Structures are given as C-alpha cells and as structure tokens.
Amino acid sequence: MANVLKKEDDDYEDGKLVKSCFREFSSVYDSHVAHSDFLTDPAKANRYGFLFDLKPTDYKAWAKGLSKAGYATDPKYADRLIDIIEKYDLAELDTETYDGGSIVGTKDLKSYRPVRYYNDIKYIIAGKADSPNSLAAQVDLRAKQIVKYNDDIRDEEQLLTPGSRVYLQPKRNQYKGHQKYHTLKADENLVSVSQQYGIKLSALQKRNGLASNETPMANQKILLKGKIKTALKLVDPYAVPVVKKNSDVAVTTSHPANVVKTTKPVTTPVAKPVTTPVASPVLQSKMDTVVITSPKPVELIPAHTVSKGDTLYGIARSYGMSVEELKKMNNLSVDTLSIGQKLVVR
Q1: One digit per residue, pLDDT tens: the chain, 346 residues?
Q2: What are the LysM domain coordinates in residue numbering (predicted)?
Q3: pTM of the model
C-alpha cells in the first residue's frame, strides 16, 4: 500500500513552482511492482506502449524512452538513470530469468509468488493448473475467500485461466485511477469489467443503474466512478439470438458445449439381412431369418451448470435459444438463478 504525498520538486505551471505528486512505499519491492503496474496500465498505452517494443535489456533505450514519454520532469532524467545503472552494474540483474512464479537461481525466493497491487488491491497472477484450493495455502487465505473476492470464480476447485488476475482482498466500490468509464465490447460483460478494474460487481451494477439480472448492450460507456445520469440500453432477455448459417452448417454460438447442427440429411448404410440357419424344424416355420440392425442412437440432453455472473439471457444466447425457450424447457417461473443449478439446454 502506498502513501501519497505532494512536495515541490521541479514541476512548473505558468512559470510558478507547483507541488508534484509522489508515492511512498513500505518496501522497495512494492515500489517496483507499482512502477510496473503504472507503465502497463491500459489507460496509459498511448503514452508508454511503444516502450514494450524495445528489447527488455536495453536500459539506455528504456531510459531515453521514459524521458521522451514525459515520465519525469527533469530534462536530464535519462542520463542520470543510465549513470546509476552503470555505476552499480545493475544491468547484470538482467541475466537472471523470471518464470512468473519464482525467481530462478535465487535460493531464498524459489517458492515466492509475487503479490502486486491494482486499484490499491492486492492480487497475484494465476499460473498453470492453479485453483482457489491450490492458491489458498500460498497466499495465507481460505479458498472460499478467494472465490468471494473474485466475481469470475464460481467454486473452490475451478481451474483458473493462466495469466488471469486473482484478487486477495475485497474489490473497491469505484476505480481510483483517472479513467472514468469503460466502453463495453461485444465479447465483454460486467464480470470481466469488474475484474479488469478491481471494482465490486454489485457496486458496478448500482453505479450504472442496473439490476443483477440486467445486461447492458455493447458499445456503451460503463461508469467506473460517479453515478450514471442516462439509463443504459439493455439487451432484451427474450430476444431470439441471431444464428449464423451457411448452405451446409448452422452454428449457434462458440460455446464449448454446443453441437454443430448439419442441415444435410445424414445417410447411414442399412445392414443387409443376415440369414442364419435354424436347426429345429419347429422354429423354422416361425422364423426363417434373423435381421441384424443398428440400434437407434441415444439422444443426450446437455446441461449447463450455473456459475457466478450467469444470467438467463447470457445462457440462452450461448446455446442459441431465447429466454422463453430456456425457461419453458426447465419449468422456470422466475428469472432468478442459483449458483450450481443445472439447466437443460439444447
């Protein structure tokens, strides 16, 4: 956690010396993490994004690039930074490698998992085969706390997406950065926005005037701070999803549980009758031949397990159905769902 303070340095406005904003950290490590998070903030990509095209070990290019981007007000910032790196041979640290969960070659930190901050909330990056249960012991939390703090995690055994952000503290009610809103993309939802900016899902819904079962349409501004003045346009939960078709195949969505439906008739070779000699003359009069045919295929009914953040509209859309069809198939009289609930889908 950082303390913010302001002091006069070398920043001027209209020829007058003004106080600049500085951050004070309790450890060097925390300051390094905050510096990295600052430069990788998506909201600052237009300013600092070009730096990440540079070679990571080219400290001179990075120092000059930071100065060019206006990171520091000191015109000699790049030269002074390069002098410090070369004076203390800091470039040698670039020979060590980092695998995302430990610092290779460092005896005391082999099992250390870096803790970072975003929106002043502690988080870690999920690795391969991580789950709330496997992370709990490493971060000194209970698995159910990890589930509670992250709206995209539905249970304690869920395998997490490698590289995803896992919060170790409750998210905040608003975003502390400069960005005021997020434009919702077609492949995003409020849960993903909540995780991206470290804002509680319930607070995000309230701030934007949304009920828990309402879904905003894409290409709208989702407020990260402040309170909405004009109501968002909502997706009609009873609208029938658009189904993409071509001459041969009709695909509903890209949901992994979907089955591709073919419009061409499927022809199955019919088995030829097999004549089997019958030894008994008594039976011969009743059955001359035995015909072997293929059994009818068993039609499986797929099921969807409701997870945190699911809505009737979202589930119906994933399976190419309307909400009305989904409710009818599952004998639902209300629009509310329970986590872990099984729904029959087509």
Answers
A1: 556 667 666 666 676 777 776 777 777 767 777 787 778 776 777 788 788 778 878 889 999 989 988 888 788 889 999 989 887 778 877 654 444 433 333 333 334 567 888 888 989 988 888 999 999 988 889 999 999 999 999 999 999 988 899 999 999 998 988 889 999 998 899 999 999 999 999 999 999 999 988 899 999 999 999 889 999 999 877 665 555 545 443 343 434 333 333 344 445 455 555 454 544 444 444 444 445 555 555 444 668 888 877 788 778 877 777 787 888 888 887 777 878 888 888 7
A2: 180-224, 302-345
A3: 0.47
- Looking at beta carbons, which pairs linking 98-105 to residues 24 or more positions away fall under 8 Å? 100/125, 100/127, 101/127
Beta strands in 126-188 (DSSP E): 165-167, 181-183
Structure tokens that stand for 148 in this block: 């509670």
Nearest to 223 by CA among 190, 172, 182: 182
Map tokens 């969505």 to a residue. 253
